[in-house]
Specification:
The chain has 130 residues and is mainly alpha-helical. 25% of the residues lie in helices and 0% in strands.
Length: 130
């Protein structure tokens, strides 16, 4: 980003607190950085500040899923096997919210499988298939 003409400095809350005078300290500018933009020379103290920032700010992230689970209505299900929302005419859900329970697998692969199955269902219901 520092090499792009749009660069006008970093947003300090998302960066480590570097010591005053550090070449790695956040800056704000009204103009792009002058050419050529040089790499930042990090000192051992800068590296410690980066390590500290990671320990204090990095956490895990999860992909929300199973909020409209597939299953029978009387068992807490929201959509049926054809992705139709129980009790609602013409509404279907085709995303990771239909997974009946949290999974310990790659969410991308599951989302792709849901999308492919949804396409088959839509094609069939719209009479577009052979």
């Amino acid at each position: 980003m520092r090499r792009m003409n749009a660069f006008r400095g970093e947003w300090a809350p998302w960066h480590p607190s570097f010591a005053a005078g550090s070449k790695a300290a956040c800056i704000e500018t009204d103009e792009p950085l002058p050419e050529p933009v040089s790499n930042i020379d990090y000192t051992p103290e800068d590296d410690e500040a980066i390590d500290r920032w990671h320990r204090e700010n990095i956490g895990s992230f999860w992909h929300p899923q199973s909020t409209c689970k597939m299953g029978p209505l009387n068992d807490g299900g929201v959509v049926d096997a054809n992705l139709s929302v129980h009790g609602t005419l013409g509404l279907k859900v085709a995303d990771l919210s239909i997974v009946p329970q949290l999974m310990g697998a790659n969410t991308n692969n599951t989302a792709l499988a849901i999308g492919e199955r949804a396409a088959d269902i839509f094609i069939k219901e719209l009479g577009l298939g052979n």
